[in-house]
Amino acid sequence: MHIPELIRLKRDGHKLTAEQLRALIDGYTADKIPDYQMSAFLMAVFFQSMDPEELGTWTEAMLHSGEVLDLSAIKGAKVDKHSTGGVGDKVSLILAPLAAAAGLKVPMISGRGLGHTGGTLDKLESIPGFNVNQTVETFRKHVDEIGLGLIGQTGEIAPADKRIYALRDVTATVECIPLIASSIMSKKLAEGIDALVLDVKVGSGAFMKEVDQARELAETMISIGKAMGTPVRALISDMDQPLGLAIGNTLEVIESIETLRGEGPEDLTELTVELVVDMLDAAGKVDDRAHAKKMLYALLKDGSALEVFREIIIAQGGDGSVCDDPSVMKAADTKITFDAPQGGIIEHINAEQVGLAALELGAGRRTKEDDVDHAVGLILKKKRGARVEKGEPILEIYHNGTGLEKCIERLHAAFQIGEGPAQDKPLIYERLS
C-alpha cells in the first residue's frame, strides 16, 4: 500500500477504508512506516478529522496492535479513570489508592507529560526508587493483591498508541479530538477494565478551551466505549486555573500525600472524591452519592488510602517512607517568590501560562527525548478570587537555575489582577454517560 497516497487522501478530506487504516497502524508498529510519514498523516487528521466509522477502526487497530489484558480472574470490579490533562492535575496519585481502599480494582496505565501538562509517570518517578516499568504479569499481580497497579505502557500494551502519543507531543497534533479519543480509549480498553470514568478538562490550561469542545470529546469517547461494550462515564471539570496549589513533579507528589492524609487543597480533594464516586457508581456500588462521599472522606482522614499508596510504592521498588516524610523527595534547593505587581483581586490565572512557566524551569519536556527535572516547580499562594497587595507573594518558584527569566515572564502573563470580581466558574461543569 502506497503510504503517501493515503496521506494525500486524508489531507484532501477523503474517507479511508478499514483496510487502509489498519495498514497504517500495522505498518507503523512494525517499523515499516517512518515517523515522518505518520507525523504527516496525524497532521492530515488534525485538519480533516475522522468520521465515526474511521475512528472506530483506528481505535480498534491501535487496541489490537499489542496485548489486550485479561483480568477476568481477578475478583471485583476493574475500573479506571483517565484525565485529558491539565496543570497541577495530580488526581490519579490520590484517586487510585482511594478507589482501591474503597474496594475497587484499579489497573492504571498512564502516560508522560504532554507540552504544558504534567504526566502521572513523571510524578511517580520523582519518588525514590519507584519503577513504572513493570511486566504485565507483575502489574496483574499488583491489581489483584493490592487493588491497583501504576505503570506506563509496556511493549505489549497498545504499542501503536505509545509511539503515536509521543509523536503528537512534538508535531502540534495534541489538541485533535479523534486522536485524543482513540489514544485514550485504545490504551484504556487494553487494560481489560469493566468500566471507565473520564475527567475531561476545559479551560485555559486544558487542550479543550471551550465546554462544547470538551463535551464533544467526552461524547466521542463514550461512543467508542459503547461500541466496544465498555461503559464509559465522563465528568467535565474546570482547568481555567491550576488544580490544587503545586505544579511540578516532586511538589505534586508531596501535595498528593498531604491530600491522602485528608489535608489537601479543597478543590483537589473534592474533584478526586467526585471521580471515585463515579467509579463506584459505574461498578454498581453506590446507592446514595452523599453516603459514598462521606465514606471516601473517612478513608482519607483515617489513613486507609495513604496506606494503599505506601503499599504500591513499596511493591514497585519505591521508598515507602515518603508517606511519613515527603521531604525524602528533594525539591529544588533554591526558592524565590513571585510577587503581585499591583494590588487588587486576582481575576484570572491562565493555567496554560503557569504550566509553560514550570516547563521553562525544566519540569516538563518539549521533545520526547528531553529529560525532566523532578525537583523544580511552582506553588501557588493565592488563587482566583483572592485579594492581594502590591508586592505580596502570590507564588513560590523552586528552581535549579534554568529558565528562570522566561518563567517569570510567563507568570506575568498568567496573572490578571484588577478591581474584580473574578469570574465564578464551577469545579465541575457536567456529567455525561
Automatic annotation (TrEMBL):
Output the SUPFAM superfamilies linked to this UniProt entry: Nucleoside phosphorylase/phosphoribosyltransferase catalytic domain, Nucleoside phosphorylase/phosphoribosyltransferase N-terminal domain, Pyrimidine nucleoside phosphorylase C-terminal domain
User: What name is this protein filed under?
Assistant: Thymidine phosphorylase
Cellular component terms, GO, for this chain's entry? cytosol
List UniProt keywords, sorted A-Z: Glycosyltransferase, Transferase
Record bears the keyword Glycosyltransferase: yes
Q: Name one GO biological process term.
A: pyrimidine nucleoside metabolic process
Q: Which domain of life is it from?
A: Bacteria
How would you summarize the oligomeric state and partners of this protein?
Homodimer.
InterPro entries per the UniProt record, alphabetical? Glycosyl_Trfase_fam3, Glycosyl_Trfase_fam3_N_dom, Glycosyl_Trfase_fam3_N_dom_sf, Nuc_phospho_transferase, PYNP-like_C_sf, PYNP_C, Pyrmidine_PPas_bac/euk, Pyrmidine_PPase_CS
**E.C. code:** 2.4.2.4
Instruction: Name the family.
Output: Belongs to the thymidine/pyrimidine-nucleoside phosphorylase family.
Q: From which organism does this entry originate?
A: Bradymonas sediminis
**Per the record, a Pfam family?**
PYNP_C
**Molecular function terms in GO for this entry?**
1,4-alpha-oligoglucan phosphorylase activity; thymidine phosphorylase activity
